[in-house]
Amino acid sequence: MNPVELIHKKRAGGALTRQEISWLLDGYVAGRIPDYQMSAFLMAVFFRGMTEEESSAFTDVMLHSGVMVDLSDVPGIKVDKHSTGGVGDKVSLILAPMVAACGVPVPMISGRGLGHTGGTLDKLESIPGFRTNLSVEEYHKVIAETGLVLIGPTAEIAPADRKMYALRDVTGTVESIPLIAGSIMSKKLAEGIDALVLDVKTGDGAFMKKYEDTVALAKALVAIGTHAGKRVVAFLTEMDQPLGFTIGNWVEVLESVECLRGKNVPDLMEVTYVLGGAMVWLGGKARSIEEGMKQCRSAIWSGLAYQKFLEVVRRQGGDAGYLEQPERYRKPRHRVDLISKQNGYIESFATRNIGVLATELGAGRQKAADVIDPTAGIVLKKKTGDRVRTGDVLVEIMADRDAVVERVRDELAGCITIGQTQVPPQPRIRAIVDSEGIKPWSTPQLY
Ligand code: URA
């Protein structure tokens, strides 16, 4: 076979056979197909899409690029969660230890920052010493001993996603249903789970901005998981403003620690409790999602969720002392505030642009070799619907890079719309999708 011919075929809208996909992807993982040819192929898929058959072959080939971990000797129903990517989306950092503290084993393979969105791995690696590249044996041992493990794709597990994800991040080839489905499900089906909860984001800060595309992505992900014999539910959640107050790596770890210690950041904790409740229910520890949510809340209030986080951080080599005494952490060299020049109410955020500005500060990558600045970040002081007065601090911006913070501050001013009437609070979660279809979702009141 010839890579150029396969790129031509996809570019012309043709459907590749399973053998052709396998030849291309296996060649890429082995280093026979270079990045530039894979980039061209990914861009062709971005524009031309894939048929259902191609998409399912693509996911399957990605999955079998590495080992499928067998966790059958670890007692309990193993459940994981994955998000399709958002701005300020730190849910995994709170949810994984919270659900593990409820007695449900959580083996989690996450991603790095992708496009304008942040990644759990980059956030975890901002904790000094934290190792996300465990061997299969270490992965197995940590989940068996702590009920929780947090890693990334490795040379052994989901290697095709590891390489292709890094390439998509910097080649503008993220927003494609078959590419997202293959990337997510190849990781999730390799990690040894029995059930999966998906957070499929919609709105300006999501990869799928239009609601109908979000529904299509959710259905595709649920179908792949169900076909593989897993119980899967997906929630369609809003990404019209950053989740919580922080965007960046270390700042998001700090906000997560505050929530693990009981702080209620309403939009963030609503999503965390609902997804966590669904995991506890799928894990057989609750009779309903609502009962699972109550258990999750108890795990936070009792301190068990935070203790579980400290335990896994230490177990994976991280220095938990920085979580207990964050003032020890290295300070960013530059820090500026964006001040409001008017009175009113926050009407909306240009969420995707805020994510892009966070990457420009150094919280994400613009080239594959870029090194993340863990201290780079944006802290919102106001959220949609909040009252604003002239002179109020709207946003705090920090980074090590010279000259960038002032420019980002000026551009952030254009990302926040202040109006004269207060926007009423909107539901954060719109619907739930399972193998039977889609239903509207209304979050039960917990407090
Ligand atoms: N998360 C992933 O793991 N992959 C994608 O392509 C998008 C979100």
- Find the count of extended strands (DSSP E, 2+ residues): 14
State the strand order across the main sheet: 1-4-5-13-14
Q: How many alpha or pi helices? A: 17
CATH topology of the largest domain: Pyrimidine Nucleoside Phosphorylase, Chain A, domain 2
CATH architecture annotation name of the largest domain: 3-Layer(aba) Sandwich
What is the overall silhouette? Answer: globular
What ligand molecules are bound, each kind once? uracil
Based on CA atoms alone, the radius of gyration comes out at 21 Å
CATH class of the largest domain: Alpha Beta
Explain this structure.
The termini are far apart. The chain is 44% helix and 16% strand. The chain has 447 residues and is of the alpha+beta class. The mean pLDDT is 96. It has a five-stranded mixed β-sheet, with helices on both faces. It has a four-stranded antiparallel β-sheet with strand order 6-9-11-7. Helix 10 (211-227) links the parallel strand 4 and strand 5. The chain folds into three domains: 3-49, Transferase, Pyrimidine Nucleoside Phosphorylase, Chain A, domain 3, CATH 1.20.970.10; 79-324 and 427-440, Nucleoside phosphorylase/phosphoribosyltransferase catalytic domain (Pyrimidine Nucleoside Phosphorylase, Chain A, domain 2), CATH 3.40.1030.10; 332-419, Aldehyde Oxidoreductase, domain 3, CATH 3.90.1170.30. Helix 5 crosses helix 14 (304-315).
